[in-house]
Amino acid sequence: MKRCKIKSITILLLAAIAGLNASTAQEAVNYDEAKVPAFELPALLLSENGTPIKTVQQWERIRRPELLEIFATQEYGRTPKEKISVRYEVLTENRKALSGKATSRQIRFIFSNNGKQTEAILLLYIPNHTRGKVPVFVGYNFKGNHSMSYDTSILYSPNFTRVKKPGNPDWARGCQMSRWPLDFIISKGYALATMCYHDIFPDVPGFKNFGIASLFSGYDSLSGKPDEWQAIGAWAWGSSRIVDYLETIKEIDSKKIAIMGHSRQGKAALWAGAQDKRFAIVISNCSGAGGAALSKRAYGETVEQVTKIKPAWFCTAFNQYRSNEQALPFDQHELIALVAPRPVYVASAQEDRWADPKGEYLSAFYASPVYTLYGRKGLTSMMQPAIERPVMNDVGYHIRKGVHDVTLFDWEAFIRFADKHFSHRL
Fold this sequence. Notes:
By secondary structure, the chain is α/β, with parallel strands linked by helices. It has 2 domains: 2-30; 56-422, Rossmann fold. It is 31% helix and 19% strand. A 10-stranded mixed β-sheet has the order 1-2-3-5-4-6-7-8-10-9. The protein starts with a helix and ends with a helix. Mean pLDDT is 93; it is low at 1-26. Residues 227-375 form the 4-O-methyl-glucuronoyl methylesterase-like domain. Residues 1-27 form the signal peptide. One of its GO terms (molecular function) is carboxylic ester hydrolase activity. Pfam families: GCE_fung.
């Protein structure tokens, strides 16, 4: 009994310390443009040996591989090349989902390697009223597949039951429906493939062993290698495994796959899109530090804050830039540029100062020269567009009213952007 009591007190103390650290980080945040330090961004079109990058060939042969290596070793960690076995089990199919507008399927992904396995469940909606193959949005949900709808047939995601205690409000069905306007997406002729991000890498301290990272050879949750991948790398890897599956589905147009990520998943979406060219469109919503926002601005969430509040998101090499952003040999505009020439869209919210909307816009703007190399059109002005006036070039952007969230306005813009670049018509 005493041991249990001591353990409980220890847990409470650790939680209090964690809360204090998070509170301290919040107190130190800068929301004053006058306090943004003078900074110089790394030259996007200049190789490490000083060679100017003037052609698509030079970009793809020299500069792009350099930048992928930098992000892998300095921010997100190296994605393992080891092949992980995966098999699929269709658990349910409902041809009359959403009042007959869609066919829904739940597919169990069983990942296995080295005598161990983990599971994830993909929730897939395909519109019934279209002809031929359909484009698809891929995106992780935060609160489990059941959070998408009141539909009681939707299964709880495997790791959700581990990371959420009974009685947590996140158990409620449909608790995050507003972020996923299923009827609207389906009505526009798009399929949607979603999975709970906890199934790939649980976003709770101490649960890493239940995610896919634990399947790889040499896995050690305490290895501490500076370039060891962590959550964002794993989530990006998992997004590509969803694409693997979608390529086997006859109703899906595998040439028209868009990835959409919000917040931490906006960070992962950009990293996934940089590595996997099968994502034909990449959309980052309110992704902030370590996502679309320029780190060197040190506005809102900073490298120090994001790596201390969520140390399991990035590789430990990124920690050397805490309160030292000016030493960064890269910045996030180069991450966005790695998506080129595929269309990329960055979205911000006016009240989401933590994510630095101006820094998100400037990052997309400074990525645009690579799109110019390809004969595509990026952002042409350093000035952000007016509120809720989207720019729909090959590099797209909008800032809307409101807070850190995904809204119907966002989805309307994402689908307009996809319609334009996929030449999609019902």
